[in-house]
Design a protein that fits this description.
The chain has about 240 residues and is mostly helical. The chain is about 70% helix and about 0% strand. The chain is built from eleven helices and no strands. The N and C termini lie far apart (about 60 Å). Bound molecules: pyrroloquinoline quinone (PQQ). Pfam families: TENA_THI-4.
Length: about 240
């Protein structure tokens, strides 16, 4: 069996950096900002039990992120990238048990009326959310470190969403105490810079067309992970009695 003839119209050289970045940014339409669940959240149409379900399920995402980042580090042979990526683990886990992004998410969960224990034992985590988040961690374990890094680029789409979420939640759910919003206020301070430096790493280390296309596919996969999380939560909301 011979190999398939190469189509002379199929480009094989790397895309110019600007085209590559544009191909990544083009995926913003697949991001979760306009998911029906997020729209209801922004419009103040979620009930307290629905907000609780969201917070308890997002916890599973938040708590798995450091394992995803550790998998990227484990697969990466470059000390300068590992050193840089390590900051993400420290950000989520904190330098000690009392701080870090994950702790701040727990504060939000408590502010919407959940007990810390029922969040930590994950009794509210939906099967679909678990499957989606586990798929993200497994993707980082199984794929190249560049694909793992590229999959985190959804964050380049997130600052506007997070700012809007913060403003809309303060307005529409005034019963949530301000301490509950620490996650978003502290995340907003780092996320724009993180998104920019992640793009730089991806552009620098995806030198071939194949690597560039794999990076774009990794970001598309991650958009699907996020939407699958909200699909599951949204579906479960329809089963909560009003
Ligand atoms: O609230 C959001 O909409 C949102 C989105 C994302 C994202 O786009 O992946 C992250 C976060 N938050 C977040 O808080 C966070 O720590 C985070 C880490 C990552 C990642 O893939 O490494 N994404 C996100």
């Amino acid at each position: 069996m011979g190999s398939a003839p190469t189509d002379p119209d199929t480009p094989t050289g790397p895309m110019p950096a600007a085209d590559f970045v544009a191909a990544l940014r083009d995926l913003s339409d697949r991001y979760w900002d306009r998911h029906p669940f997020h729209l209801r959240l922004h419009e103040g149409r979620l009930t307290k039990p629905e907000l609780q379900l969201w917070a308890a399920n997002r916890w599973y995402y938040q708590r798995c992120l450091p394992q995803k980042d550790a998998a990227i580090i484990a697969n990466c042979p470059l000390p300068e990238v590992r050193r840089h990526w390590l900051d993400r683990i420290v950000y989520h886990d904190g330098r000690d048990a009392g701080d870090g992004g994950a702790r701040n998410w727990l504060r939000l969960a408590e502010a919407v009326g959940l007990d810390r224990a029922e969040v930590l034992d994950e009794r509210h985590v939906l099967p679909g959310v678990r499957f989606a988040v586990d798929a993200y961690v497994n993707f980082a374990r199984a794929r190249s470190w560049q694909e793992g890094v590229a999959s985190g680029l959804t964050e380049m789409f997130s600052p506007g969403l997070m700012r809007r979420r913060l403003a809309d939640m303060r307005e529409h759910y005034p019963w949530i105490g301000e301490e509950g919003f620490a996650y978003f206020t502290s995340r907003l301070a780092v996320v724009a810079g993180e998104g920019r430096s992640t793009v730089d790493i991806v552009v620098q280390h995806c030198g071939t067309r194949e690597q560039q296309e794999a990076a774009v596919a990794a970001l598309a996969f991650k958009c699907d992970v996020l939407r699958a999380i909200l699909d599951s939560i949204d579906y479960a909301c329809h089963q909560i009695a009003p």
